[in-house]
Design brief:
The protein is of the alpha+beta class. 21% of the residues lie in helices and 29% in strands.
């Protein structure tokens, strides 16, 4: 009997397979991905993923990925941020936001920002930050850190006195750990929704 694998783990496994192979796995490959011994065992999760709009099934019975797995968004060109210039819409490629922003999905998580201590770094309340665990922070990386039992997001720095964490808002002061410091990850991207 396979170990219990919830639907979120199946989705993650399919996304990882798509990133590596660029195609939909066969039923046998899905059985292996999901930890099943039989191809027949994948029919129930496949139907569930079709209901949830992660997969599609053609009239011929072929399984396909939706953009909820591939994350594909058309890249139409570039836009002038200085003086206006004529632009032509041209499909250059299709990109996945995940592929663009996430190099290590197994070590990446998101957090919603509260507070304004990083506002001068362009990180506002209700933004979302993409964080990668396991990286050693460099000077001026933005990190998620637990300082003396409290979690925060700040610029990472080191000097002769040791490690410090700096805000990006003059209303706040530098933090130096007194008892403990745990780095929870390095911020890789900020996501802001306007509408």
């Amino acid at each position: 009997m396979p170990r219990t694998m919830d639907i979120a783990e199946k989705i993650t496994a399919l996304r990882s397979f798509y990133r590596q192979e660029g195609r939909v796995p066969s039923y046998a490959e899905m059985a292996e991905l999901f930890g099943y011994r039989s191809k027949n065992a994948v029919y129930h999760p496949i139907n569930k993923l079709i209901e949830m709009n992660y997969l599609t099934r053609s009239n011929a019975g072929r399984i396909g990925f939706t953009s909820k797995i591939t994350g594909g968004i058309p890249l139409l060109g570039s836009i002038q941020a200085g003086f206006p210039s004529p632009a032509e819409e041209e499909l250059l490629d299709t990109i996945s936001i995940d592929e663009l922003l996430i190099s290590r999905p197994e070590a990446t998580y998101m957090l919603t920002v509260s507070g304004d201590s990083m506002i001068d770094a362009g990180i506002h309340p209700n933004d979302m930050v993409l964080v990668e665990k396991g990286r050693v922070p460099k000077q001026n990386d933005i990190v998620i850190a637990q300082v003396d039992g409290e979690w925060t997001m700040k610029y990472f720095g080191k000097d002769q006195q040791g490690i410090y964490l700096d805000p990006a808002n003059s209303a706040y002061t530098r933090i130096r750990p007194e008892r403990s410091l745990t780095i929870g990850g390095v911020v890789k991207a900020v996501i802001r929704k306007y509408a």
